[in-house]
Each structure stands twice: as structure tokens, then as C-alpha cells.
């Protein structure tokens, strides 16, 4: 080999070695570029193709692997780059990391996410962090607003037990608050209003006492006393227990919602267990009220009263709610590992049914909320006749004789009929006659007389096809002494005056 060839080979080797030595530092120093330097590189390269983006992606990943001081910003860069490169899995991972570190959900508004909008990963991110408005959300919100409206408006009703309306409005109010919190949760609005987190939990132990005192108020004409405040002591204790969590900052509450801070998980156990115990205890107490009151009173006529039907329905819904809450609470509190998500909706749906039912009854049958006289008179009559000494056998015999006098003899048509005269016909005392009417028909003597008289008058009016009879003649025929009294009794029973009733019958016959 000649000298020139040796020299040429030596120069070539130096050239190769120098290239390798130059390349090595580039690869090693790239990850240590600061984020501002990386951003300047982007501008210098004028990125416009995927290959350059892939190179940049590698650059960011290398920087992250080397624990770059700007790693949180790198999470954002990687999330957006992966989204833009249609890599939804990686975009999901880095988006979650960025949000968990910054609590900044606005990253999902970046246009890069349009590329992966149809992916399952994006849908999960969207459902977890972005505003969600669908028909269940709207429906539950509507029910909550109905409940709040009922809570306010029922307290303006007159001629009602003020304790009863206070308790039932409070009962509906705490349910409505829970439904509203659920709406904020499923719509992700709670991230915007973090201080609403667990806002309804402070009322978790109010459901039972409020319903219990309402049943006592409408059944026994109960009056609230200072000692009864002990029933609300557990709620006060729960409030003290939850106060440290309620006093947290917005960001700290969001971290709890994102399950980044598990130090308050014990709250779920305490709320769930204490609420179940409370609901069970008060379900038993309310059941005793229902059973004992029915046992004292009652005939079939008593059981069929609208007020008793609706109380029975409310109690049944309460029991169903208790069962559903246990099923819902076991997984939510962490006692069970997993559960179908629709269980959340079942429990809130039962709550919603209860709220809507109460509001509907307030609209259709306002007397149930406005007047508790039927219940009062029933209880008063039970107390009045408790020591009368009237046996069951004699009571049944007098009832049968009374029905015979009204149905067969039509004593109500006598214009001089009164309790004294009726008692003589039954061969018993005024006291016993009054007791029989109250216990077996759940009305007083005058209401019983009017019912039979108006029923007789209706039959006469229906048979008078040609309208040849005068109203005053019909009044005299059924036992009334004047037209005014007859008109009032007729309208009270049928919601129509005799003239209006005649006109309605005439239209039917045309």
C-alpha cells in the first residue's frame, strides 16, 4: 500500500469517527432541552408533517423518561400530539396524567381531540370530565325543581297542622337536594361547583325522623316538643363529623372527586352505615303507627279513605327506597367491589317517584295536605268511646239495625229526625248511637243523614225525565225543611247545585 493510499484511509477513518462523535452528543443532549428550547425548535423546523411530529413525540418521551423538570407541561404536549396523531390510547393516558396533576379540564377543548372524537378513549374522557346533558339529567333536574317548589308552596297552605306541613316539606326538600346533587354529579357540573360535593349527605339522617314526625302529626294530631329534638341529634353529630371535609378548598374537593385523595373515604362508610340504621329504625316506628292506628279504627270504610291510601303508598315507597339504598350503597361505600352503573339511576328514580307523587297529590287532592280533620275526628272518637263499654257483638248488632232503618225504613226522610229519635228507634243511648256511626261509617250523624238524603234526591232527579218536579218539592220529599239547606247539602255532596245537576241530566238525555 502506497503512502498516499494510507493517508487517504487515515483521513476517511477520522471522518467516520468524527461523525459518530458528533452524533452521540446530539442524542444524549436532546432529552435535556428545556421546554422553551423545544418550543423554539418547533418554530424553527416549521412542523407541518407527521414525521416531524413523530420525531417531536420521541423528543418529549425522552425528556419525560429523563424526569424533565417541566414534566407536567410535557404531559399536555404528549396528550395533544398523540391525539393529533390518532393514537387515542396514549392520548388518554397523558390527558389523565395532565388533568390529575393540574385539575385543568380545558385541555379537552383543544382541536387535536377532534381526530380521536369517535374513539372509546375520548368518549370515556368526555363522559368523565366534560359537560354531559342528556334526557335523564334534564328529567331529574325537573323533578328536583318540582320538589323545591312543593317544599316552599306547601308551607303557605291554610287550615292545616303546621307541624305536619313542616315535616313533609322538609322530607321532600332533603330528597330534592339529593336529586339535585346527583344531577350535578352525572352532568360533571360538580367540577365547576366543587363546594356542592356531598352537600346532601348532611341530611342523610333526616329522612327517617321527618317522615316519622309527619305520620305522627297527621295520625295523632301530634305536637312537637323540645324533647323531640333528640331525634335530630345524629344529624348534628354527622355535620360535625363532615365539617372538616366541607371546609376544604375547591381544588382539594376536586381531588377527592377524582379519587386522587383517598383520606376521606371513611366518610362514605360512616354515611352509608348510619343512614341504613336510621332508615331501618324509623321504618319500624312508622310501621307501628300505621299498624296500631288501623287496628284501633277500623272498618273497611276507614281503610278506603284517600288519606289512608296515600299514607300507605308513601310508606311502601319509603320501604322500597330503603332496599334500593342498601343495594346502591354497598358498592358505592366500597364494601362491594363493583356494581352496574344503572343502580345509581334506580335509587334516584325511586326518590323522584316519591317527590312527584307528593306534588301530584298536592295538586289533585289538596285536602290531604290542607285538612287533617278526618284523622283528628277519628282519633278523638276513639278516645271518646274507649271506655264506653260497648261490646263488639252489640256494636255489630246496632250497626245492622241502623243500616236497616236507613235502607229499608228510610228514616232520613223524616224532617224531624235527630240523634235522640234515632237512638230510640235503635233502643239504645245517644252515646252508643253516636259511637256506632263514628266507628263504622267514620262520619257524624248529620253527615250520614245528608248522604242518604242527597242520594235519594239524585235518584228522584234521574227518574224525572220530563223535569216536571220542582226543586223545593224534592227537598221536602227527602227530608229537608227548606230549599237553601237542600242546595248547600247537594252541592257539598256532588259539587253541583240541583239546577246544574238537572241541566247536566237534560243534556245527557238529548
Automatic annotation (TrEMBL):
UniProt domain HTH araC/xylS-type: residue ranges: 401-504
Positions of transmembrane segments: 135-154, 166-185, 197-215, 227-246, 266-286, 319-339, 345-363
UniProt cross-references to InterPro entries, sorted A to Z: Homeodomain-like_sf (IPR009057), HTH_AraC (IPR018060), HTH_AraC-typ_CS (IPR018062)
UniProt cross-references to Pfam families, sorted A to Z: HTH_18 (PF12833)
Highest rank taxon of the organism: Bacteria
Keyword set, alphabetical order: DNA-binding, Membrane, Transcription, Transcription regulation, Transmembrane, Transmembrane helix
UniProt-listed PANTHER family: ARAC-FAMILY TRANSCRIPTIONAL REGULATOR (PTHR43280:SF29)
Name the record gives this protein: Helix-turn-helix domain-containing protein
Species of the source: Flavivirga spongiicola
Lineage summary: Bacteria, Pseudomonadati, Bacteroidota, Flavobacteriia, Flavobacteriales
